Amino acid sequence: MSATDAGAAATPKYTKKDFESDQDVRWCPGCGDYAILSAVQKTMPDLGIPRENIVFISGIGCSSRFPYYMNTYGFHTIHGRAPAIATGLRLARPELKVFVVTGDGDGLSIGGNHMLHILRRNVNVTILLFNNRIYGLTKGQYSPTSELGKVTKSTPMGSADRPVNPLAFALGCGATFVGRTIDRDVRHMEEMLRRAAQHRGAAFLEILQNCNVYNDLTWNVIYEKESKLAHELRLQQGKPLLFGPPDDRRAVIMDGVMPKVVPAKDVAESALWVHDEHNVNAAKLLADLWVPDFPVPTGVFSAIDGPVYEDMLLAQEQRAISERGPGDIAKLLTSGDTWKISSEGS
Amino acid sequence: MSEAAAPVAGVRKSRKELDRAVIRFAGDSGDGMQLTGEQFTTESAWAGNDIATLPNFPAEIRAPAGTLFGVSSFQLQFGSQRVYTPGDRLDCLVAMNPAALKVHLRDLKPGGLLIVNTAAFDKRNLDKAGYATNPLDDPALGERYRLHKVDMTGLTHKAIQDLDLNTKEKDRTKNFFALGLVSWIYTRPLEPTLDWIGKKFAKNPAFAEANTRVLKAGHAFGETAEIFSEHYTVEPAEMAPGLYRAMTGNRALAWGLLAAAERSKVPVVYGAYPITPASSILEELAMHKRFRVRTIQAEDEIAAVTAAIGASFGGAIGVTGSSGPGIALKGEGIGLAVTAELPLVIFNIQRAGPSTGMPTKTEQADLMQALYGRNSESPVVVLAPATPGDCFYVAYEAVRIAAKYMVPVIVLSDGFLANGSEPWLIPDVSTLPPIDIQYRTDPEGFFAYLRDPATLARPWVRPGTAGLEHRIGGIEKQDVTGNISYDPDNHDHMVRTRAEKVRRVAQEIPPTSINGAATGDLLVVGWGGTYGAITAAVERAQAEGKSVASIHLRHLNPLPPDLGHILREYRKVLVPEINSGQLVRVLRAEYLVDAVGFNRVRGLPLASEEIFEGINQLLGERA
Lengths: 346, 623
Hints:
The complex is a heterodimer.
Chain A lengths: L32 H11 L10 E5 L14 E4 L5 H11 L4 E7 H7 L1 H10 L3 E7 L34 H7 L4 E6 L3 H13 L4 E6 L16 H7 E4 L6 E2 L6 E6 L2 E6 L16 H8 L8 E8 L5 H16 L4 H5 L4 E4 L5
Parallel strand pairs in A: 1-2, 1-3, 3-4, 4-6, 5-6, 7-11
Antiparallel strand pairs in A: 5-11, 8-9, 9-10
Helix pairs in contact in A: 1-6, 2-4, 3-4, 5-8
Chain B lengths: L2 E3 L8 E5 L1 E9 L4 H14 L3 E7 L14 E9 L10 E6 L2 H7 L3 E10 L5 H7 L9 H6 L1 E5 L1 H8 L7 H5 L2 H12 L5 H10 L4 H20 L5 E5 L7 E7 H16 L3 E5 L6 H8 L6 E5 L3 H13 L3 E6 L1 H17 L3 E7 L16 H6 L8 E3 L6 H16 L2 E7 H5 L1 E5 L45 E3 L14 H16 L16 E8 L3 H13 L4 E6 L1 E3 L5 H5 L2 E8 L5 H9 L4 E4 L8 H13 L3
Parallel strand pairs in B: 2-9, 3-6, 6-7, 7-8, 11-12, 11-13, 13-14, 14-16, 15-16, 19-20, 19-22, 22-23
Antiparallel strand pairs in B: 1-2, 3-5, 4-5, 10-17, 15-21
Helix pairs in contact in B: 1-7, 1-8, 2-3, 5-9, 7-9, 8-9, 10-11, 10-15, 12-13, 18-21
């Protein structure tokens, strides 16, 4: 474990309860955020990190209420800026484990620029983006991930902007960990949370989340049991890209430079596309797959090692100190060109 | 300029002693005028003079050669007495091309020394400067000024004709001919420049040789050419004894942060997005990683301030710096620091606006922005340095106040202070007040908004402290507990508490120092970079026996506790500012005094001459 990691030798044995704060949770009844909160609280003990070394940072939006409900350090900041706050915090305190909780509006619209830069810098932060394809806190306007033509209060004749694909965006920014999970699949969500939290570098986890008030069942294609079975492609390291019910197994294969779905029985085992988290190019192809022509992939798309921003900056600081000694302001003030004026005035 | 003739024995040409002189080097932005001016400044510092400088350059990195907007200049005033400003009117103008002559001639005093590089006065350059005929051929120019036409380019080439450099490289050394010549005229020592050449071109002996020869050629030209009948000395100034260095405002801000990091033993995290004229603070800090000052070149102004806030949340000293347009973008972030009650220092190196305005030109029109430029009731502490060297103390003080009161502090510098330099008495850092940062570690009775009774500061807790896990944010909080609260009375209480906390910073302000008598006809009140011009004007009026005094505010919010009393001791109050009247409004609103503004907004420092006139005018109006 590196010096800039949050673990400690003697971390107490925690339970989920240790991470529940004393605040009343104020999301709408039935909101997908409850399941996410519960899953996060449940996975925290598995990280082996003292509670006081964990910080949750958020911006604005329903998702951004999250830090109030975690019994860790937390900072509920301003719209879109959580990644920048987290970057400053990591540079000041590299021993802390920092989570950013955001949503599709906060993280990809008003804060899209900061999301780009925290990912490309590969700051060691775990980013949980709750994607419900709607603005909830402001009561129901369309979001940057809403489907084209979305009818909302602010778009009564349908939205005219094409949605952004969060995972394709993250990969394009150079994210070193990119994954997707679903609020209604608790076990998978817990597994993905652990994976993302244990990644060293900027980890981007999209959580497909239900807003039952303003955009209910937007992800029904992978909520409804039969549809989920038919359309979810569970990515697993070293496993072929197979999905669908046992009587209709399908494979995603490469046809030239294009992905293609074919009946699994028609593909020789050697011709199957085997998932490799270290292959970023493959991840970029997978990020674009979606119904109806393709399945909906979930799991870890990409997990690679990359140099971490604050590690490099702090290494420069250490190098400067080891080569030239710690700073000495008195010496600096008298360095370079100086001249003396004696009491006689010359 | 008083010219007491004082011939010096053993010198062939007559030498006059001056109290002070104002010189401007002007040329194309590629002519090396900034370097020439800086070297002349160093030489004058060696000569023991007090100095003030004013670099002035185009925003374009390489503006088209020979054009009016491509002219770059460097002005300085040096003297044997206290020098407060770079000077209003020029005693000497060096014009390296027609454009420089056209732009700057109007500032030269009648009878002033005008030195031009004749080689640059060709058809092409004259056309570009908009001269139909060569102004050097007009006899009126030589009648109005002491004109010296020198073929600097030709003489430069002659001095180094045998060196293996191409024409362009040889051409480029001609600024040192001008420097050598003016150094001779004003009896400046060449040693500092020769030292500089030796260091700068240590790896390139041909350049070192060329610059040395050209510098000396310029000097010898003054000595031997028949055209210069006299030259000048300026005796060393009576300055406080001690070790001095040249200091610019931006470097002083940066070094003030280094001092704060060292004394507080807490790392500084400086977030910034490059912007004129603040970028050099980021660059300076990035060179001093040994001081545990961590710099982030952020993706935008908002990220720069919020990264600083994140660092402060983590227990470091978060600092951000920009100019007015960037500060506008940071407004919401500053508001977060106000309500989260975290320390934050914001440098605003003001420039002419609105919008992009004139990025390289100075202004002090962001006072209202600093005081009120955020949504809702969002009080912050506002400080303003008076001189380039003062920036060091103000940066340090900003950190001290921010940490002690858990409050954002805005420092209003400006483009003039940022780039201008002055001889700066190097302080003994052990005499700086301590920055004693105490993080809360005791969980017993802890609440996130439990306040210190003297400062009203809430406890600063570093994440990582067991038993003190807590959440803060931008939503209104219940006092003491820090829990989210929409209670109307609590909000009213918190609005007042945040304001009162800022007001209590007044207990940090020393008694206001009055330049002049404690009562009288007129008090001139200034703030920021106009200190020099105001002081020079007021001292001139005082020397004429007028009942005038001045004070200069370094604390703009809160204002000094003794200010209201002082204002009432004078019959009239004049407030010179490079804006259309901002501090004057504050003073009128705060103290119900009939203060009068003196306002010029030209992107230039105020001239002491015009302030002097403003003083006389107001004194002349009998109520």
